[in-house]
Design a protein that fits this description.
Arc Repressor Mutant, subunit A, two-stranded antiparallel ribbon, 7 helices, single chain, binds zinc ion, 162 residues
Amino acid sequence: MSASKAIKQYFLDNPKKHISHNEIRDHLILLNISCKEPQRQVRSFCQKGFLQKVKDGVYFYDPYFKEEKYLSPEFTALQRKEILSEINYCEVCGSTDRLIIDHIIPRDNKNSTNERKNAQVLCTKCNNIKKNNNNIFLALKLLQKEKNSKLKNIINELEGLV
Ligand SMILES: [Zn+2]
């Protein structure tokens, strides 16, 4: 099990319990899962709305909490036209097949905007892999397809941090 999954499961198993970073670290040690910075994962869960923050370093999972979901604006038709006239290929794989304008920082992240700097051109295939994630996630998923066992181990370690 990845550190990320183990942390999520621990919060799911203990709804409403205030859980500190130390407790998470102990739990991971118990499961024999190595994770250098579990607090980063916890903070990212909080950012995504899965966890609520009590205070610095202490979070909890509330199964009944529904956050008003934030979505940054779509790119306008004019923006799309301008960007595609500038870049007419997928910026990841180079394909020119069915291009879309993707929000680099996903729309449900509070730091996401519809400014040019948050736009990238992707083909539908790359966009389907990235889904609502960041570019690091996309890169890891693409690397997973490589037949290199050492690389696979590195990716497994990194996955918990994304
Ligand atoms: Zn592509």
